[in-house]
Amino acid sequence: MTVQLPETKPADAPPPKLFDNNGQPLLPAAATSTPPAPAADYVQRMPTDSDKVMQHTTPIKYTPTRFDKYWHKGSTVDDGLQKAVDATTVSHTINLPRGVRIHCSISLAMLAGGCGGDPPPPPSKKDGDERLSMAPSQPLAKDPHPPTPPTIEACIAMYRAEKPLAYGCPVDTPNRSIDAEKSDRAKAAAGKP
Q1: Residues 6 or more apart from 130 whose CB is under 8 A from it?
Q2: Torsions phi, psi of 183, nearest 5?
Q3: pLDDT tens digits for 55-112?
Q4: pTM, entire model
Q5: How does strand 112-117 pair with strand 89-96?
Q6: CA-to-CA distance for 100 and 93, rounded, in angstroms?
Protein backbone atom coordinates (compact mmCIF):
# COMPACT_ATOMS: atom_id res chain seq x y z
CA MET A 1 0.00 0.00 0.00
CA THR A 2 1.29 3.37 -0.93
CA VAL A 3 0.19 6.73 0.30
CA GLN A 4 0.71 9.87 -1.61
CA LEU A 5 0.72 13.14 0.24
CA PRO A 6 -0.98 16.08 -1.36
CA GLU A 7 1.22 18.69 -2.79
CA THR A 8 1.52 21.80 -0.75
CA LYS A 9 -0.01 24.82 -2.38
CA PRO A 10 1.34 28.28 -2.06
CA ALA A 11 -0.43 30.64 0.36
CA ASP A 12 -1.81 32.81 -2.44
CA ALA A 13 -3.68 29.88 -4.07
CA PRO A 14 -7.51 30.21 -4.16
CA PRO A 15 -9.53 28.06 -1.76
CA PRO A 16 -11.12 24.91 -3.18
CA LYS A 17 -14.50 25.38 -4.89
CA LEU A 18 -17.41 23.38 -3.49
CA PHE A 19 -20.15 24.97 -5.67
CA ASP A 20 -20.30 26.09 -9.28
CA ASN A 21 -21.53 29.49 -10.52
CA ASN A 22 -25.20 28.31 -10.47
CA GLY A 23 -25.01 27.17 -6.83
CA GLN A 24 -24.94 23.47 -7.65
CA PRO A 25 -22.49 21.32 -5.64
CA LEU A 26 -19.42 20.14 -7.48
CA LEU A 27 -19.49 16.34 -7.28
CA PRO A 28 -17.06 13.79 -8.64
CA ALA A 29 -17.91 12.30 -12.04
CA ALA A 30 -18.96 8.93 -10.56
CA ALA A 31 -21.64 10.56 -8.37
CA THR A 32 -23.10 12.63 -11.22
CA SER A 33 -23.43 9.70 -13.57
CA THR A 34 -26.21 8.09 -11.48
CA PRO A 35 -29.57 9.78 -12.06
CA PRO A 36 -31.44 11.03 -9.02
CA ALA A 37 -34.41 8.99 -7.82
CA PRO A 38 -37.67 10.32 -9.29
CA ALA A 39 -40.28 11.68 -6.91
CA ALA A 40 -42.90 9.30 -8.34
CA ASP A 41 -41.21 6.36 -6.61
CA TYR A 42 -41.96 7.86 -3.19
CA VAL A 43 -44.46 5.79 -1.19
CA GLN A 44 -46.19 7.20 1.88
CA ARG A 45 -45.89 4.77 4.75
CA MET A 46 -48.90 4.21 6.96
CA PRO A 47 -48.48 4.63 10.72
CA THR A 48 -47.29 1.48 12.40
CA ASP A 49 -48.66 2.40 15.83
CA SER A 50 -52.15 1.68 17.05
CA ASP A 51 -54.81 3.41 14.94
CA LYS A 52 -57.08 3.81 17.96
CA VAL A 53 -55.05 6.76 19.26
CA MET A 54 -57.20 9.32 17.41
CA GLN A 55 -60.55 7.72 18.20
CA HIS A 56 -62.43 9.70 20.84
CA THR A 57 -64.68 7.12 22.38
CA THR A 58 -65.62 6.85 26.00
CA PRO A 59 -65.54 3.52 27.78
CA ILE A 60 -68.65 4.47 29.82
CA LYS A 61 -71.84 3.77 27.94
CA TYR A 62 -74.91 5.81 28.95
CA THR A 63 -78.40 4.48 28.54
CA PRO A 64 -81.25 6.94 29.10
CA THR A 65 -83.78 6.21 31.84
CA ARG A 66 -87.38 7.21 32.38
CA PHE A 67 -86.31 9.91 34.83
CA ASP A 68 -84.36 11.95 32.26
CA LYS A 69 -87.34 14.14 31.38
CA TYR A 70 -87.59 15.26 35.04
CA TRP A 71 -83.90 16.05 35.42
CA HIS A 72 -83.13 19.78 35.52
CA LYS A 73 -80.56 20.73 32.85
CA GLY A 74 -79.44 24.11 34.25
CA SER A 75 -77.86 25.14 37.50
CA THR A 76 -79.34 27.03 40.41
CA VAL A 77 -77.11 30.03 39.71
CA ASP A 78 -78.31 30.22 36.09
CA ASP A 79 -81.93 30.01 37.19
CA GLY A 80 -81.42 32.76 39.77
CA LEU A 81 -79.74 35.05 37.25
CA GLN A 82 -82.49 34.46 34.68
CA LYS A 83 -85.17 35.30 37.26
CA ALA A 84 -83.29 38.48 38.22
CA VAL A 85 -83.05 39.55 34.58
CA ASP A 86 -86.73 38.84 33.97
CA ALA A 87 -87.76 40.76 37.11
CA THR A 88 -85.69 43.86 36.25
CA THR A 89 -86.46 44.07 32.53
CA VAL A 90 -88.68 46.93 31.41
CA SER A 91 -90.15 46.85 27.90
CA HIS A 92 -91.94 49.60 26.02
CA THR A 93 -93.32 49.94 22.49
CA ILE A 94 -93.16 53.28 20.69
CA ASN A 95 -95.71 53.84 17.93
CA LEU A 96 -94.53 56.16 15.15
CA PRO A 97 -96.50 57.50 12.18
CA ARG A 98 -97.30 55.26 9.21
CA GLY A 99 -97.64 52.15 11.39
CA VAL A 100 -93.99 51.95 12.45
CA ARG A 101 -93.45 50.42 15.89
CA ILE A 102 -90.20 50.29 17.87
CA HIS A 103 -89.83 47.84 20.76
CA CYS A 104 -87.29 48.81 23.45
CA SER A 105 -86.18 46.81 26.50
CA ILE A 106 -83.81 47.68 29.35
CA SER A 107 -82.57 45.21 31.97
CA LEU A 108 -81.09 46.65 35.15
CA ALA A 109 -79.64 43.30 36.24
CA MET A 110 -77.64 43.00 33.00
CA LEU A 111 -76.98 46.74 32.70
CA ALA A 112 -77.95 46.52 29.06
CA GLY A 113 -80.76 47.46 26.75
CA GLY A 114 -81.71 47.67 23.13
CA CYS A 115 -84.37 48.56 20.60
CA GLY A 116 -85.72 46.86 17.52
CA GLY A 117 -88.61 47.28 15.14
CA ASP A 118 -91.18 45.19 13.37
CA PRO A 119 -90.32 43.87 9.93
CA PRO A 120 -91.73 45.95 7.08
CA PRO A 121 -95.25 45.05 5.96
CA PRO A 122 -95.53 42.91 2.84
CA PRO A 123 -96.36 44.73 -0.39
CA SER A 124 -99.99 44.94 -1.38
CA LYS A 125 -101.23 42.25 -3.75
CA LYS A 126 -102.10 43.80 -7.08
CA ASP A 127 -102.24 40.63 -9.14
CA GLY A 128 -104.15 42.23 -12.00
CA ASP A 129 -101.67 45.08 -12.45
CA GLU A 130 -100.48 44.82 -16.05
CA ARG A 131 -97.07 46.21 -15.06
CA LEU A 132 -96.46 43.03 -13.04
CA SER A 133 -97.58 40.55 -15.67
CA MET A 134 -96.12 39.49 -18.98
CA ALA A 135 -97.23 41.06 -22.21
CA PRO A 136 -100.37 39.43 -23.61
CA SER A 137 -99.93 37.24 -26.64
CA GLN A 138 -101.44 38.39 -29.89
CA PRO A 139 -104.76 36.66 -30.61
CA LEU A 140 -105.14 34.74 -33.86
CA ALA A 141 -108.19 36.74 -34.86
CA LYS A 142 -109.06 40.28 -33.85
CA ASP A 143 -111.97 40.62 -31.45
CA PRO A 144 -114.87 42.22 -33.27
CA HIS A 145 -116.23 43.55 -29.96
CA PRO A 146 -113.23 44.67 -27.89
CA PRO A 147 -113.97 45.51 -24.26
CA THR A 148 -114.03 49.20 -23.45
CA PRO A 149 -111.20 50.22 -21.15
CA PRO A 150 -112.20 51.64 -17.77
CA THR A 151 -112.08 55.37 -17.19
CA ILE A 152 -109.12 57.00 -15.46
CA GLU A 153 -111.30 57.76 -12.42
CA ALA A 154 -112.32 54.09 -12.16
CA CYS A 155 -108.66 53.01 -12.37
CA ILE A 156 -107.67 55.50 -9.65
CA ALA A 157 -110.53 54.24 -7.44
CA MET A 158 -109.36 50.62 -7.93
CA TYR A 159 -105.78 51.59 -7.07
CA ARG A 160 -106.82 53.48 -3.92
CA ALA A 161 -108.94 50.50 -2.81
CA GLU A 162 -105.85 48.27 -3.33
CA LYS A 163 -107.73 46.10 -5.79
CA PRO A 164 -106.16 44.64 -8.92
CA LEU A 165 -106.22 47.08 -11.79
CA ALA A 166 -108.51 46.14 -14.65
CA TYR A 167 -107.07 45.44 -18.07
CA GLY A 168 -106.74 48.70 -19.97
CA CYS A 169 -105.83 50.92 -17.01
CA PRO A 170 -102.79 53.06 -17.77
CA VAL A 171 -99.45 51.99 -16.40
CA ASP A 172 -98.95 55.30 -14.59
CA THR A 173 -102.14 54.93 -12.52
CA PRO A 174 -100.23 55.32 -9.18
CA ASN A 175 -98.79 58.65 -10.36
CA ARG A 176 -102.18 59.78 -11.62
CA SER A 177 -103.70 58.83 -8.25
CA ILE A 178 -101.20 61.05 -6.42
CA ASP A 179 -101.81 63.92 -8.85
CA ALA A 180 -105.58 63.57 -8.39
CA GLU A 181 -105.17 63.61 -4.61
CA LYS A 182 -103.04 66.77 -4.81
CA SER A 183 -105.59 68.51 -7.01
CA ASP A 184 -108.43 67.48 -4.65
CA ARG A 185 -106.50 68.97 -1.72
CA ALA A 186 -105.81 72.17 -3.68
CA LYS A 187 -109.51 72.51 -4.55
CA ALA A 188 -110.50 71.91 -0.92
CA ALA A 189 -107.97 74.50 0.30
CA ALA A 190 -109.11 77.06 -2.29
CA GLY A 191 -112.75 76.58 -1.31
CA LYS A 192 -112.06 77.41 2.36
CA PRO A 193 -112.23 81.10 3.38
Answers
A1: 165, 167, 169, 171
A2: -70, -35
A3: 777 778 888 888 888 887 777 888 888 888 889 999 999 888 877 889 999 988 888 8
A4: 0.28
A5: unpaired
A6: 10
